[in-house]
Amino acid sequence: MRLPVLALILCLSACASAPPPPPPPPPPSGPGQPVLRDWRSIVTATDRDRYTRRDAAWRLALEQARRQPGSGDLSSLGALIDPGAAQRGVTPPPGAYRCRTVKLGSQGGEAGLGYVVYGWFACRIEATPRGLKFSKTTGSQRPSGLLFPEDDRQMVMLGSLALAAEPPANSYGQRPDRDLVAVLERIGDARWRLVLPWPQTESNLDLIELVPAGG
To answer: Would you state the pLDDT for residue 36?
Structure first.
């Protein structure tokens, strides 16, 4: 009888020392969509640093925007330029959107504009086999990228930038000078923003506002 009892003791000891199971994968990016890989396993070191320092980008960019001259009506933007405006239920429905870019702060310091508010362009959120994808489809600077679920208030976008007449960008991690990281947040009933900290040129924080094209 001693051998079965000893085997049971050893089994219980091994089970007690076994590591906990791995955490569950992130939730799907939209109804019926596949589960995406964790963006942290994909992001480059440079973009991880940008993401980590996004609060500093907000502070510097807003301080410059409020102190330096700019182009457009900064006072009309409301929640778009409020760092704490994110609401629950971030996942946007696929479809056509209107979008506009607001650049805050200046990499040129006092010599540059503190902010620039651009006009409206066409954008799209589409369901792909890899999850939701954002694309700006018109304009001379056209970012696009996959949206990774983070929590109920944020999605993280890893993407690339297409310029001028180039085809849509789809090369994250292959051209560091075009890579970008952004945080998607819902800031109203049918209003979202992409927050791009420390962009490659011009500003210290870019915001892309999105509203449904039919709204």
So the answer is: 57
Cα angle, residue 160 at apex, residues 99 and 40 outer, rounded to 5°: 105
84 secondary structure, DSSP code: T
Question: Are the beta carbons of 93 and 206 closer than 8 angstroms?
Answer: no
Note whether 92 and 192 are within 8 A (CB).
yes
Mapping DSSP to helix (H, G, I), strand (E, B) and coil, where does residue 121 land? strand
Q: In whole angstroms, how far apart are CA 139 and each of 17, 145, 169?
A: 58, 16, 13
pLDDT in tens, 84-109: 999 999 999 999 999 999 999 999 88
Query: Is the CA virtual torsion 132, 133, 134, 138 positive or negative?
Result: negative
Smallest CA-to-CA distance from 152 within 195, 90, 94 is with 90
- CA-to-CA distance for 125 and 133, rounded, in angstroms? 6
Per DSSP, which regions of 15-114 are E strands?
Answer: 95-104
Give the model's pLDDT for residue 1: 42
Query: For the whole model, what pTM was predicted?
Result: 0.81
